[in-house]
Sequence to fold (1034 residues):
Amino acid sequence: MREVGIVGVGMTKFGVLGRVTSRELATTAAREAMEMANIKREDVDAIYNGILSPDIFEHQMHSAPGIPDYLGLNNIPSTRVEAACASGGLAVMQGIISVASGLYDTVVATGSEKMTNLPTSHVTEALAMCADDVYEVSLGITFPGAFAMVARAHERKYGTNAEMRAAVAVKNHKHGLHNPLAQFQKEITIEKAMNSLMIADPLTLYDCSPITDGAAAVVIVPWEKAKKMDGPKMKVSSFAQASDTMSLHDRPDITGFKTTQVAARKAFERANLKVTDIDFVEVHDCFTIAELVALEDIGFFEKGKAGSATLAGDTTRGGYIPVNISGGLKSKGHPIGATGVSQVVEVFKQLNGMAGQRQLKDVNYGMTQNLGGSGSTIVCHIFERGD
Amino acid sequence: MREVGIVGVGMTKFGVLGRVTSRELATTAAREAMEMANIKREDVDAIYNGILSPDIFEHQMHSAPGIPDYLGLNNIPSTRVEAACASGGLAVMQGIISVASGLYDTVVATGSEKMTNLPTSHVTEALAMCADDVYEVSLGITFPGAFAMVARAHERKYGTNAEMRAAVAVKNHKHGLHNPLAQFQKEITIEKAMNSLMIADPLTLYDCSPITDGAAAVVIVPWEKAKKMDGPKMKVSSFAQASDTMSLHDRPDITGFKTTQVAARKAFERANLKVTDIDFVEVHDCFTIAELVALEDIGFFEKGKAGSATLAGDTTRGGYIPVNISGGLKSKGHPIGATGVSQVVEVFKQLNGMAGQRQLKDVNYGMTQNLGGSGSTIVCHIFERGD
Amino acid sequence: MHREVVQIVKSYEDAINQNRIIGSICEDCETISVPPRAVCKKCWSDKIDFTTVEPQGKLITWTVIHIAPPTYVDKAPYILGIVELLNGERLTGLLRLPEGVEPEFDMEVEAAFEESLEGAQRLRWIPYHK
Amino acid sequence: MHREVVQIVKSYEDAINQNRIIGSICEDCETISVPPRAVCKKCWSDKIDFTTVEPQGKLITWTVIHIAPPTYVDKAPYILGIVELLNGERLTGLLRLPEGVEPEFDMEVEAAFEESLEGAQRLRWIPYHK
Ligand SMILES: [Zn+2]
Ligand SMILES: [Zn+2]
Fold:
């Protein structure tokens, strides 16, 4: 496989965006990314689009061809991939594979979702459909519910409590303050988080990421080509994907996700890197417990230690490992298909000194972890500075 | 890119299959393909699944991880792709790219759909959602309606009439007689087809493919590996994908699909073959007019000539170019995500002398053309004998 | 660098709600697109403005839909066609013809707007009255 | 060569409709899976049979769902948990506890079956009565 790089990124405002289609959002993000990459439009060979369910949210299937259509890029291949909340990361990964293979020289990977058309209970149902319909959804499971069961199992085994989970929310809201594209720019307190509305016991409103509209995009080219380009860039060090059972109950251990462990280990092996080489990470904090579990499963902390580490400030800017400097799903928002792509966008901006007020210093390697379902799909990427 | 081959195929019965999930269907087809390939289960590196909308048909998203789950293949990557009725062909193509890249050595590409849970009007709506929601679906378009408008434009320009369309249905039903996995094994007459229930004028019931449950699967490996294997095999000569505008009205010419023209031309170029090198073809006859248009757009016949050629018997077994020997979507059935994979299954069986009563003689090159939406996505493959 | 989202679909729907059909017009090459587009289909410029187009055209193809989705079952059979506007751009739409009038190629039609509906689905085409 | 489709989900649902929980049992290695599987999760054999399992177990984790999907809104808040059966296999299910009884780790439960419903969703877990 050829080495591959990213040479441009784009992202819409994340939030409640009114009457706009995911297709318009994806097109906007793609145009920004292509402009940053300064590529000629006729050079785009293919598009990938990660999106959860335009079917349910927008009464629209077959979303992918709509993007080159709106971009005026006639007849190029455009492929939708779906892996629940990991759809965006997977679109980036499939784009990387297609360039690494030698098939395409310039690919735009996009992620998008328009969720706020539906009332909350309908969104809750749509997301629940990423769990096993027969053995979980028909019994009334929700995604907060699935992660609540993980949180309770984790608390029993390791003592990870509500305060530790709230500390994740507080930290990510604080990080999001400096991300103008984030859905929220507002600080919260541990007390406020712990006393917010109960969603799925023990998870409260502030343990959960919001319902969001938005899109993000990246431009992928062979690294040999990227090196000759003047603009910002980063190299894809490695990527990996893993799957697990659809039903949470079918896994021997639910205090972690084996998929994250497998995907992260593969990503480290393929990049010939160790976890200590990573300078910052964007993990999938759809729920606060998910961030803690991700940090343990990747190996930044021993099992059971991420909660106290978060309380101690180890995961904030200037801490041992800065986690979700973008604000994470919690504060940045979680437009499902866009999320995994927006994680890559954040790594790109950090590695190229384009992150404005939230810029980290001296960062060489950034990592992303994007989760789908109750961890049934995980996609990890590692990127390195391009200069 | 590495050269790639197919070394095993599987396909469930296509039809009305009762209480069974698309996941069980995909798993069954995958097991059959893996058994034919005689690969060790632990050698499977990844799975791709083409499926239109488990969301709408089965209240289930995130279908892909469910397949390795049911196969007992823990933690391997599993990716869903969706491109309307071209989802299956696209899953095969993404699987081929991933093996050609060097990333994976053994990939199972599956296609599946469980459609008959819903009443016909709801299926009609779900399929219509592959058109443009804002500019077409909100106005009441259906897929028979979209192809009816193509048929009428084609009739005006080239005189392709109801009898010629009916001849496609008659021919494919005749072919399907010899396919035990086809939904229908029954001959029809031109008169019966022309006088059947009007669906979307001028298309009648027998111009349309049925609503079907089913799955199909193929095993993809590097050609270097395939050559050393004892069982049946075929080589992937080439593949290509193209997109077009979502809305039919946005295209200058609707008497054909530019996507088919572009994808077929690319496939011929990449394989260094001419249309006259192809011994038989499986095209996407979701509607009778679609077969005629496909044959013209690929180049088997001049524009406007496929209808009279079909009436003359040029597309039947023993004709100039045998088309849809499997029975096509018309007689074999059209379980959306499975269709494109089942086309590849048919080419494999023909090239390996495994097609039973419908076996063609002396065939070296087979081609597939899989269509999504009103031609907004096309995926073409060319395969050659492996011995 | 950061791009604001241009709400093209909303602009189109808002116009239809005001009984107007709009297209986009490219400031660079003057190409008009109906429905409107954020990116010019000819020169890829994104400097676009909206313009109201003549709501008349001719029927270039059509179908009569007998088997309809649930929301349209009550209306079936209904005539759906593609109309080529005077400027050459095209739109899909529902035809509302007087009793006894059949659709035919190149039939001249003009836009009407359904009163009870909202957005893009308000658009209807009726025979042109000179 | 050709494989018939084994309707595992249907078999499970049919059993639940008869107030039984079934698993698959591998004819080669005797591994039991609940819910049943067409392929043995241990040895990958597809020689499987169905077996009725003891409808008792203990609660290993749970949640109380307050914000529910539309079809469950009327029931919220409700308790959903994972039950480890006596044979070590696990199932997700709804808990129906008497007033004043709170869920706790390792609480012993047994299956009950909702009368008005069909299929997998009939399953409920209630405190075990020795
Ligand atoms: Zn222009
Ligand atoms: Zn066994």
Summary: The mean pLDDT of chain A is 97. Chain A is about 35% helix and 20% strand. Residues 4-118+212-234 of chain A form a domain with the Peroxisomal Thiolase; Chain A, domain 1 fold (CATH 3.40.47.10).
